[in-house]
Amino acid sequence: MSLFAISDLHLSLNGEKPMHIFGDHWEGHHLKLKEQWEQVVAAEDAVIIGGDISWALKLEEAGEDLHFLHALPGHKVLFKGNHDYWWQSYAQVKKALPPSISAVQHNYYAYTKDLAVCGTRGWNVPGMANFTEHDEKIYQRELIRLELSLGLAVKDGFTRIVAVLHYPPFGPGLEDSGFVALLHKYNVKICLYGHLHGEDHRRAFSGERDGITYHFTSSDYLGFRPLLIWGSDPPVKISSQGE
């Protein structure tokens, strides 16, 4: 059993939001995602999807995108991104999800008996350009939400935690933020994030910093291939001749 991660799928199977306008590599990207996903993810695995899942504006409009994910191998663990307008009520989202999909909001996903997947959307952090009083209010609210998730997992006895944010947890120059402080407070060793695209990939950091390993998981950065976070290396699918 392995744990994978990917974010920023930006699905729009109802055709309302063509993604090729953001670059040729987004042309038919859901088919690329399906192909890459099926090569590495097995039925017994889990895949963290760190936000910006669907362009749908309403929950009922996201159905086709969610059923696309349901048909892919493994259990999917969803976190909300800034473009997931269809995700308003956690209770309604949870009720509408197909059986192979879970959502995390103010709680956690138990991957194993001692490893929990926690997180929240996150937000812009103080010190970034054009950071406003409105940003500060959302930032403080997201800190509370992250601590609720982390604190609940620790209270329930989980000793290993993977933290998931949609936004980067630090500033553009890797300046610490309240999110990073919470990761250290709860002894998080792995943190995943996405949100950045195109030229902003240059601001992304992947690697170890002050005892925490960060993974940048935006789908276009990963070539639409889920990234192995925990467990054994996935098998390499070898196509037979003529396939």
Indicate the CATH architecture: 4-Layer Sandwich
Q: Give the helix level as a range of percent.
A: 10-25%
Shape: globular
Q: Count structural domains.
A: 1
Rounded to an integer in angstroms, the radius of gyration calculated over CA atoms is 17 Å
Number of helices: 5
Poorly predicted segments: 236-243
Largest sheet: 6 strands, mixed
In CATH terms, the superfamily is Metallo-dependent phosphatases
Number of strands: 11
State the CATH class.
Alpha Beta
Describe the protein's architecture and organization.
This protein has 243 residues and is an alpha/beta fold. It has one domain: Metallo-dependent phosphatases (Purple Acid Phosphatase, chain A, domain 2, 4-Layer Sandwich), CATH 3.60.21.10. 24% of the residues lie in helices and 20% in strands. The protein is built from five helices and eleven strands. A six-stranded mixed sheet has the order 5-6-7-8-10-9, with helices on one face. A five-stranded mixed sheet has the order 4-3-2-1-11. β1, α1 and β2 (46-50) form a beta-alpha-beta unit. The chain is globular, with a radius of gyration of 17 Å.
Task: Kindly summarize this structure in a few lines.
The protein has 243 residues and is an alpha/beta fold. 24% of the residues lie in helices and 20% in strands.
